[in-house]
Amino acid sequence: MLFKLWATIVKDIRVLLTDKVGLVFMFIMPVLLAIVITAIQNSTFELVNNNKIKLLLSNRDTCTFSQNLVEAIEKSGMFEIVSVNSKISDNQLVERMHQKDALLALIIPVDFSEDAELQALNIASKTLFRLGLNTDTSKLLPIKQSKLTIYFHPVLQESFRTSVNKVIYGSFQLLLSKQVFKKLNFILNGTEISDKFETDLFSSEVPINEIPVSRNGSRTIPNATQHNIPAWTIFAMFFVVISLGSSIVREKLNGSFVRLRTLPTSIFVALLSKQVTYLFITLLQTSVIFSIGIWFFPYMNLPQLIIPTNIVGLLIVSLISGWCAVSFALIVGVFSQSQEQSNGIGSASIVILAAIGGLLVPSFAMPTSFQYIIKLSPMHWCLESYYGLFLEGGKLVDVLLSVLPILIITLILQLIAYLGLKNKKLI
After folding, report:
1. In what order do the strands lie in the sheet with 149-152?
2. Of 2, 214, 257, 408, which is the most exposed, with the fewest CB atoms less than 10 Å away?
3. Contact predicate 388/398, CB 8 Å
């Protein structure tokens, strides 16, 4: 029995080595995706955290409040402000953005400071009135509500534009609060507050201590590599469907399964051989992609992959995830009528499972309606298991609730493959 199994494994390995396209999909493509996506995501993090976005500024108001607003926006650290002529037209400003001089432009309108001062005075007067002090609110002047105008390049996504708006709005609200306090102080005491007192009052900051949730007490904040390498390793595992699915279809069409029934062996030996062979391939994929993250990424100025301390847990999760990927490829091969059909269905289904499983878009960012659908994807549970080890520093016992669904899905896939072969009278 063992000799027959070994001989069949050797045969499957030789057949696999002739499948150049399958090898490319299983090794080259996932490796390139892991490198490219990690590099892009890491650059995005650096853009948000370290680099500044160029902002064209046309300040058409010459008073103090607008100048203070520009200083506050600059102190936020998010923008590199490029001042342009205040007399420049909106169309000229937009044309400069089309020439990629900047992705953002801010226009501060005429009389913006005057309106802000008036708004601060009105708020101060209303506050004193509500406190029971004798302030005549009937004399409050109407405010024109001058609006800031922000032009943005369409390449900027909504989440980034929201961040920009919040920074500018926060800067304005801080300055307005200062003005309100000054007005209150002047109305009550008849004097201006000193610069030192203003600095002491408004320079206080709340210290924020960022601590990642970890099971091993580690306070290391996970980087782009820790997120991407496990995800694209799973993606690579499931792409064995291209080679394994085609192999099963090819053997169905050329009558190999039928001939096996006439020989002193079992078709289960052939199926076990394929699963053992491709399970080894998934472990080889894991080793290759992890090795690139550990040794190659630092040479590309990318964060190094940090392997979890629980090596046994990592090996078991990799084995179970690989077996699930092989089982999925098995049923694609069993139910496909041609190699073209197997490749098409296999590729499309993997992309769909990756999308709903959290590999392409984080699961927490998906709509509420998707929170139940994602649990149907085996890739979701594989990713959760890996993240429990890589990001949370957990052990095998900590990710059992993610590993068990993978095993259940795998056994269901195996049963479906068996029933499919039986229905086609191949066993």
Report:
1. 79-83, 53-59, 104-108, 149-152
2. 2
3. yes
The percent of residues above 90 in pLDDT, for the chain, comes to 16
* CB proximity list for 8: less than 8 A, separation 6 or greater: 269, 270, 273
Cα separation, 271 vs 123, in Å, equals 78
Per-residue confidence band for 381, with pLDDT thresholds at 50, 70 and 90: very high
Tokens 């795998």, residue located: 410
Burial class (CB in 10 A: 0-12, 13-18, 19+), 69: buried
Between CA 97 and CA 88 the distance in angstroms is 13
Work out the number of other CB atoms within 10 angstroms of the CB of residue 107.
Answer: 21
Q: Which residues pair with 55 in a beta bridge?
A: 81, 104
Mean per-residue pLDDT over the chain, rounded: 80
Using alpha carbons only, how large is the chain's radius of gyration in Å? 31
DSSP of 164-228 = HHHHHHHHHHHHHHHHHHHHHHHHHHSSPPPHHHHHHHH------------SS---PPP-HHHHH
Domains of the chain, CATH where assigned: 2-44+229-423 (no CATH), 52-202 (3.40.1710)
* DSSP conformational letter for 86: T
Closest to 172 in 3D by CA, of 65, 47, 264, 298:
65
How much is the pTM?
0.72
Q: Take residue 85 and report the two structure tokens written for it.
A: 């002529």
CA distance 188 to 186: 6
Can you tell me the mean pLDDT for 413-420? Answer: 90
Calculate helix-pair angle for 311-335, 267-291, nearest 10 degrees: 130
Q: pLDDT band for position 63 (50/70/90)?
A: confident
pLDDT at residue 283 in the model = 93
* Model confidence pLDDT, tens digit, residues 120-167: 877 777 777 776 665 555 555 566 667 888 888 776 777 778 888 888
pLDDT over threshold 80, residue 384:
yes
